[in-house]
């Protein structure tokens, strides 16, 4: 699909234009790409709406359930995020699912569970910049500052704009200047 190739090359605007064609409205693959674009631009309500419909049509697609869980998490709907995650976990075991479980546990302030899940994600696959950034954030919240800095630097090597890693390094810099600030 041409829109998917555009998306892989980082051409989001072109991909969006192609996916907005009337014929794409009935194509599940096109709708899944639209949901992914909505997630990328932070339009979580639209992503959730698209993903709910897609999950109803393709209940055995773990990637769709994962994305729905992520959208729900970003909307602060932790119970719905957990439910979508559990549906995905019933279908497969992927590092991305453990990373999402870590994010949900982190949002619930369950640092022990978050640390366990991020360790599981790292054990299943080479660490991605996203997983390293999430690990850095969890380490920061657990006052493991050296480990937080190490994981943040690793995340930035994989993606110089990795959001969580930048947050961690900024927080560590503030703490270095004023130890009582962190």
Task: List its salient traits.
11 helices; 182 residues; mainly alpha
Give me a quick take on this structure:
By secondary structure, the chain is an all-alpha fold. The chain is built from eleven helices and no strands. Helix content is 76%, strand content 0%.
Summarize the topology.
Layout: H1 2-8, H2 12-19, H3 28-40, H4 44-57, H5 62-74, H6 78-91, H7 95-107, H8 111-124, H9 129-141, H10 145-158, H11 163-177
Helix pairs in contact: 1-2, 3-4, 4-5, 5-6, 5-7, 6-7, 7-8, 7-9, 8-9, 9-10, 9-11, 10-11
Q: List the secondary-structure elements in sequence, H or E.
A: HHHHHHHHHHH
Helix content class: over 70%
Q: Write down the overall mean pLDDT.
A: 85
**Class by helix and strand content?**
mainly alpha
Major pleated sheet: none
Distance between the amino and carboxyl termini: 47 Å
Q: Care to count the β-strands?
A: 0
- Our count of helices gives 11
**Coarse morphology:** globular
- Unreliable runs, pLDDT <50, ≥5 residues? none
What is the strand content? under 5%
Instruction: Please state the CA-atom Rg, rounded to the nearest Å.
Output: 18 Å
